[in-house]
Specification:
Helix content is 59%, strand content 6%. With 449 residues, the protein is mostly helical. It has 3 domains: 90 residues, Fumarase/aspartase (N-terminal domain) (Fumarase C, Chain B, domain 1, Orthogonal Bundle); 232 residues, Fumarase C, Chain A, domain 2; 79 residues, Ribonucleotide Reductase Protein R1, domain 1 (Orthogonal Bundle). The radius of gyration is 30 Å and the shape is elongated. The mean pLDDT is 94.
């Protein structure tokens, strides 16, 4: 095919079996191309029919796992052409009419990412829905929220969990946005500057369910920003999963004590009989590093390459496949981790209602900074006395500021604090239940049109 056989070293270095997973997509693209060649008269109708029949048989082999690669197949494209020749003879040589490996491989990869991206969206919606179910169960469970890993304000466990659900939905949306650009067809661009044959590239794109064609042939074969965008969507998804995994690890510590891990999602220690280790969550957190590396790799791969195609681009598949595989497995693992958690969250510390007391003063006309200083001084004095706001009495409050009175002790309750938080997106029970309903609606896809 290449007009000569390279040395064994060159052959082993330049061949890459990772693109074999593109087999079904290569065949679908080739079928659409062959049909178009016959319809436009670029090849005879009889030759087009033979190619279509042969490719249909190959697609059946591929889908059933019967297709066999050989060691002499340089890549998935040569394997298809070789096997098609075995089935239909010389007519197989017509399949490359009006097409180059350069636009063919871009088409295959775009078709693959369209399918895998749709699967990632579905997985992320399932993750968000799983979290929503947990949030509904804990809509009224009062827990501390944290800033700087210090207890901040009372919130609900459901509200905390939903923050991760919203992140998952945004990740799903990123894949959807990326797919809008990935679904453009490069076929017809040829090696770099198109073809003299009367190709109907729009018909091929429509046949493959793509949104249209790329308007510039050099850009079509010489750009990999669509791969980088996909890898970024995967990397950000892994960053979000890693944050959730890190919280699971933190929650499972004796110091936090928020959750008990089921034996399905944890392992015992080889030396310490008392321990259950959150290995699955730790591996999700750890494998995010590999996907972040893929993000750097795909950006570096594109840097400084002259238009249009360069063999450097062979490496894009290795990069995106790794990122995609890790993300797919990690989402499934996270769903199982979440289903294996039993929560027993301690109540917030009494001082988490300090802001409530300051807001009482603000509501009575005291500037916030003055109110802040008064409450901070009170908290510090109580601390020095070995107390906290949960043990403060009316005398403590009236002594802290003249506009506080003894009845304001009733505001020093974490559950009451949460019920008073009514700003949009706050953590009170009604808000949590509204968010749960919206997350479920979006996860079901009813808003995706």
């Amino acid at each position: 095919m290449w007009g000569g056989r390279p040395s064994e070293l060159a052959w082993s270095y330049t061949t890459d079996e990772s693109d074999r997973r593109l087999l079904v997509f290569d065949l679908r693209g080739s079928l659409a191309h062959a049909r178009m060649l016959g319809e436009t008269g670029s090849v005879s109708p009889e030759e087009a029919d033979r190619m279509v029949d042969g490719l249909s048989r190959l697609l059946e082999e591929a889908e059933t796992g019967a297709f066999e690669f050989e060691s002499a197949d340089e890549d998935v494209h040569s394997a298809v052409e070789r096997r098609l020749g075995e089935l239909v003879g010389a007519s197989a040589g017509g399949l490359h009419t009006g097409r180059s490996r350069n636009d063919q491989v871009v088409l295959d990869l775009r078709l693959y990412l369209m399918a895998s991206g749709a699967e990632r969206r579905s997985q992320l919606h399932r993750l968000a829905s799983t979290i929503a179910d947990m949030a509904e169960t804990h809509a009224s469970t009062v827990v501390p929220s944290y800033t700087h890993l210090q207890q901040a304000q009372p919130t609900s466990l459901g509200h905390h969990l939903l923050a991760h659900a919203w992140a998952a939905l945004r990740s799903a949306d990123r894949f959807g946005d990326a797919l809008n650009r990935i679904s453009a067809s490069p076929l017809g661009s040829g090696a770099s500057s198109g073809s003299s044959f009367p190709l109907d590239s729009q018909a091929v794109a429509a046949d493959l369910g793509m949104s249209g064609i790329i308007p510039n042939s050099l850009d079509a074969v010489g750009a990999r920003d669509f791969v980088a965008e996909y890898v970024f969507a995967a990397a950000q998804s892994m960053a979000d999963l890693s944050r959730l995994a890190d919280e699971v690890v933190l929650w499972a510590t004796s110091e936090f004590g928020w959750v008990t891990l089921s034996s399905d999602i944890s392992t015992g220690s080889s030396a310490l009989p008392q321990k259950r280790n959150p290995d699955v969550a730790e591996l999700i957190r750890g494998r995010s590093a590999s996907v972040f590396g893929d993000m750097t790799a795909i950006l570096a791969l594109q840097k400084g390459l002259p238009l249009a195609y360069n063999r450097d681009f062979q490496e894009d598949k290795r990069i995106v496949f790794n990122a995609d595989d890790i993300l797919a497995a990690s989402i499934e693992a996270m769903v199982e981790v979440l289903r294996g958690l039993t929560f027993h969250v301690p109540a917030p510390l009494p001082n988490t209602v300090a802001l409530d007391l300051a807001e009482v003063l603000v509501a009575r006309g005291v500037p916030f900074r003055e109110a802040h200083r008064a409450v901070a001084t009170l908290v510090e004095r109580l601390r020095e006395e070995g107390r906290d706001l949960g043990r403060a009495d009316g005398d403590d409050l009236t002594g802290a500021h003249p506009r506080l009175d003894a009845s304001d002790v009733s505001s020093l309750d974490p559950a009451g604090s949460l019920s008073r938080r009514r700003s949009p997106g706050a953590g009170h029970e009604e808000s949590v239940r509204e968010q749960v309903a919206e997350v479920r609606r979006r996860s079901a896809g009813r808003n995706l049109g």
